[in-house]
Structures are given as C-alpha cells and as structure tokens.
C-alpha cells in the first residue's frame, strides 16, 4: 500500500521513473555467392546462443535459401550426340532453376533494405562472401553512417570486392591466405571490450589467417595482430582484428572464424582447445556489444 502511495505521489509530481533498458536488435547475415564455409551453421548457433545468454540483444537471421542448384557435369571431348543432347537439356533445366533460386536470394536479402534496417540496431556479416544482391548497397552504408552498428567475421572482408565504399567502411579487403596455422596473436588493446578477457598479451589460436589489401593501419583501431607473416614468418605487420567508426556508426571486424572449433567449444573434431572457442566467443560478443553502443573500445580514428 505504501509503495502504491509513493508511486502515485511520484507520478503526480511529474517525475519519470527509469525505463528498463531496451534490448537491441541485430540482423545476422550468412548468405554467400562465393565460397561457402562449412562453419556457417556453427556460427549461427553460437551467435544465437550469445544473444540469449547475454540478454543484451536479440537476433534475426538472413540465411541462404535451401537447395542451391548445381550445374551439370559437362561431357568430355569424345561424348556421343546423345550425351551432348542430355547435357544440353540438363543445362537448360539448371539455368531455369538457378534463375528461380537467385530470385529467392534477392527476396531473402530484402531484409537489408533501408526501410527494414530502421528496425535494427546492428548487422552482422558472419562468413558472407561475394556480391550479395541486397536492395540498396549505398543505402546500407548510409544506415551504418547514420548510427547503425556493423560486425564482420572472417570472410566478411571477402564480400563486395567490386564495391569500394564497402571496403572503406569495413577497413580492409581479403587478399589471400595460406594453410591453416597456429599463431600467437598480439592483443593490442586489453581495455577494449573485445579483448579484455584475454589473460595474457597474446592469444594462441589455430585457424586460417587472412592477408589483406586496401588496409590502412592508421585508419582503424587495431585489436589483434601478428608481427610476422602467419605462414612464411616474414617480419611485418599483419592485422587480425580491428574496430573503427564510420560516420556515427561503429564497425568491428575479426578475421578469425574459419574453423568450427574456433567458434564452438563443444566441437568434437578439433585442433584448438575448448578455451580458444570460449575466448573467441567473448571476443566477438565484446565486439558486438561495442558496435551496439553497450561497451567501451574507443577507436582513435573516424571515417566519413
């Protein structure tokens, strides 16, 4: 009764009670038009798990349409007329099916339209590749610049190679990689939400390590890096993870995440110990929360 009286008095006095923090909404994109990583289903599971366990955000997925058509095998030089005719018919059927599937892909990606993005606080590109047929590429970047969050994992930098504004937004472009290898990544900012959980100044991980082009060390806030080439050990600076601002938006990227056992501590066939996956999950969770404006990890540079 006393609580009710106090509440009534506060309302009568025009005093606003603090509202519960609104849970952020994140759109997770895992579609591909290039190489498709086998770790994508694991990535989807882990990101959903992090959202649920943290309680900081909810997720909605933009996933690959099922049953992607595959082209028929072309007959050899000594093929019979019957075999050539069969291939011709199979090729025509494939092209028809592919056209229908491409239309489904475009429909799926309408979730990235400027109007729909108004319903979200951040977008994650988890192992996307290729030129995704999103409705408005520049509109997507404008949404980030206006205050949206963007998070990229691993092959997010292998996306939109022909669209330079996207490369400038994310901060680097995939160039190549060598064989999967164990590295000791330098943790450059242990105060950052994406790195403060690391127990030492290095993070030992076995993964596919990317090399980049169109990357400028002075235009990003570097988080993880190597001081030698991951494979041939040539001295130099080799970035692994960074964050940056893009207009009013926040951008976080990590090139780790090729292997299933980097994502999932319970994956059976593994080279990384389970604690590597747990550290990686904290790494990306810290990056996601920073991109949402929920954590600190302030870049020294701003773009656009």
What tags apply to this protein structure?
304 residues; alpha/beta; Rossmann fold; ten-stranded mixed beta sheet; two-stranded antiparallel ribbon; globular; disordered N terminus
Give a verbal description of the structure.
- With about 300 residues, the chain is α/β, with parallel strands linked by helices.
- The chain has a domain at about 25-70 and about 100-175 and about 240-295: Rossmann fold (3-Layer(aba) Sandwich).
- It has eight helices and twelve strands.
- The protein has helices spanning about 1-10, 40-55, 80-110, 115, 135-145, 165-170, 260-265, 275-290; strands spanning about 25-30, 55-60, 120-125, 150-155, 175, 180-185, 200-205, 210-215, 220-230, 235-245, 250-255, 300-304.
- Strand 10 and strand 11 (about 250-255) form a beta hairpin.
- The N and C termini lie far apart (about 55 Å).
Counted by DSSP, the helix tally is: 8
SS elements, strand count: 12
Structural category: alpha/beta
Question: What CATH architecture label of the domain at 23-70 and 101-174 and 242-293 applies?
Answer: 3-Layer(aba) Sandwich
* 3D shape: globular
Strand content: 15-25%
| Helix/strand order | HEHEHHEHEHEEEEEEEHHE
Biggest pleated-sheet summary: 10 strands, mixed
The CATH class assignment of the domain at 23-70 and 101-174 and 242-293 is: Alpha Beta
What is the typical, i.e. mean, pLDDT?
93
Any idea of the CATH topology of the domain at 23-70 and 101-174 and 242-293?
Rossmann fold
Low-confidence stretches: 1-19
Helix content: 25-40%
Q: What radius of gyration results from the CA coordinates?
A: 23 Å
